[in-house]
Design brief:
Elements (H helix, E strand, L loop, with lengths): L17 H62 L4
Length: about 80
């Protein structure tokens, strides 16, 4: 029985700049998603619950949108290791 060795070259890796490209993509898309989420929150909150619902729902959707921006930036650059 022979031992099988796997060289470093055999391991599939992300192309250079992949993390940076992913980070830029997230930096562009996450604010757009956050804005759309906030707009939806404004419409839904106003239509269904009046002014109190508007303020609560807007706060929740804005928080969710900012969380998306932060998560996208962290995942796109730090997690992939391409700074």
């Amino acid at each position: 029985m022979s031992a099988v060795s796997i060289s470093h070259a055999d391991v599939e890796q992300d192309p250079p700049g992949f993390g940076r490209a992913l980070g830029v993509t997230c930096a562009i898309l996450c604010p757009l998603v956050a804005a759309a989420t906030l707009a939806l929150g404004l419409v839904v909150g106003f239509d269904f619950a009046g002014s109190l619902g508007l303020s609560i729902f807007t706060a929740l959707t804005a928080g969710f949108g900012f969380a998306l921006i932060i998560a996208g930036a962290v995942w796109g650059s730090a997690v992939t290791g391409d700074h």
